[in-house]
């Protein structure tokens, strides 16, 4: 019965786990097996030696990852014994193939038996439904690489997944006919655990002052603890978009708690900016750091488009002096030495050509931006700083702001 296949898979998985737990592997590795060949008259056994270096990609079993696992082991390759010494060729699926020991298709294998079609074809597959004539206990693999077979008259299903089991133990499952030597090299990429998404910053700026008029530096610092601001005239204001005075602004309708952090640069302000730093206070790396925010335009004051640029740095020097002129320093090419610009997170004014206040919350005056900084990894105790730069552009400047900021990262769960 096909149920014996499930039992065998369970036992094999348990044995693989036992080997992995008693090895020096840190993660889970993907293994790649090689089949033996030879000449013989019946069933033969071959000896296989496998070494798992823990740093590759394999095709054989479920799992993949980015860990460090190292494993050494000895594998036994078992031949079918048809006497021709030739193994079955690899099929099109990375983890669904011919199980020579049980003579059916199953998860955890990659070979294709030319005498039994590996593809399930165009048959409508639904677990628990009556089996079509084309589906037997031999089974097949569907287009997603999952295993289907007929058991007790109804369709049964096993999700195989796309990776390899990669335990780095070097167990070679040789499918050679006759007397063959199986040489299973475990070339694995240790997983070290699943990654989970965590939120590093979730800021809507609604704590900023909301009564229109002049404000002060301390009011902004108290509203956004840990944030830094810089412009030459130290001006902080609450605005609705009608203002022409150069300053860093809390934008929104007067008295409305829905705020956005922005600025209107001028000769008095020079280049102005605002930003914040975060520290990785965990024991795991932060990777695939994603920054998402909404850029809003609160005033149109120029015939040309202008931009509010985004940059980041991992420089401890800049972090220590964030509230000084380092906040508006030019971006460079090395985030450990200077600000590193991210073009995908530049907010460009959507409205040009007039001289009027705008509602930054209106769809036509705002742009949602999001980008994953794939090559940025933050190790434990390292600091990441992000900032927006509002340059004093030629002519009168637009009023541009940031709202609904979200910064996330992937880390080991």
Protein architecture, described:
With 413 residues, this protein is mainly β. The protein has two domains: 192 residues, no CATH class; 217 residues, Jelly Rolls (Sandwich). It contains three helices and 23 strands. The strands form five sheets. Strands 8, 9, 11, 12, 13, 15, 20, 21 and 23 form a nine-stranded mixed beta sheet that branches. Strands 10, 14, 16, 17, 18, 19 and 22 form a seven-stranded mixed beta sheet that branches. A hairpin with a 5-residue loop joins strand 5 and strand 6. The N terminus is likely disordered.
Q: Report the CATH C-level class of the largest domain.
A: Mainly Beta
Overall 3D form: elongated
- Within the CATH hierarchy, at the fold level, what is the topology of the largest domain? Jelly Rolls
Classify the secondary structure makeup into a structural class: mainly beta
């Amino acid at each position: 019965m096909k149920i014996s296949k499930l039992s065998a898979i369970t036992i094999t998985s348990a044995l693989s786990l036992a080997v992995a737990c008693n090895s020096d592997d840190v993660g889970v590795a993907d293994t790649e097996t090689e089949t033996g060949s030879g000449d013989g008259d019946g069933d033969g056994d071959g000896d296989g030696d496998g070494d798992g270096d823990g740093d590759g990609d394999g095709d054989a079993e479920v799992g993949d990852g980015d860990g460090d696992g190292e494993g050494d082991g000895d594998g036994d390759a078992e031949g079918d014994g048809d006497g021709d010494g030739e193994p079955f060729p690899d099929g099109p699926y990375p983890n669904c193939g011919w199980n020579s020991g049980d003579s059916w298709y199953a998860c955890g294998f990659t070979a294709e038996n030319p005498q039994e079609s590996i593809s399930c074809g165009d048959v409508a597959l639904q677990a628990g439904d009556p089996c079509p004539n084309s589906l037997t206990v031999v089974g097949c693999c569907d287009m997603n690489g999952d295993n289907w077979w007929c058991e007790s008259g109804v369709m049964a299903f096993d999700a195989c997944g796309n990776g390899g089991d990669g335990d780095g133990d070097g167990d070679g499952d040789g499918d050679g006919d006759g007397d063959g030597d199986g040489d299973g090299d475990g070339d694995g990429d240790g997983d070290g655990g699943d990654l989970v998404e965590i939120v590093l910053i979730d800021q809507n700026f609604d704590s900023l002052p909301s009564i229109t008029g002049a404000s002060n530096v301390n009011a902004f610092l108290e509203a956004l603890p840990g944030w830094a601001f810089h412009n030459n005239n130290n001006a902080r204001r609450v605005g609705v978009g009608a203002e022409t005075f150069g300053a860093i602004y809390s934008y929104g309708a007067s008295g409305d708690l829905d705020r956005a952090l922005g600025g209107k640069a001028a000769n008095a302000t020079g280049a102005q900016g605002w930003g914040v730093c975060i520290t990785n206070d965990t024991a795991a790396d932060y990777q695939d750091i994603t920054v998402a925010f909404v850029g809003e335009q609160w005033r149109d004051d120029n015939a040309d488009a202008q931009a509010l640029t985004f940059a980041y740095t991992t420089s401890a020097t800049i972090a220590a002096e964030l509230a000084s002129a380092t906040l508006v320093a030019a971006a460079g090419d090395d985030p450990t030495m200077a600000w590193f610009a991210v073009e995908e997170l530049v907010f460009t004014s959507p409205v040009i050509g007039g001289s009027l206040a705008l509602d930054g919350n209106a769809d036509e005056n705002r742009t949602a931006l999001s980008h994953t900084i794939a090559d940025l990894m933050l190790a434990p105790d390292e600091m990441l700083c992000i900032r927006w730069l509002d340059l004093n552009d030629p002519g009168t400047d637009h009023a541009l702001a940031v709202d609904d900021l979200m910064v996330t990262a992937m880390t080991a769960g």
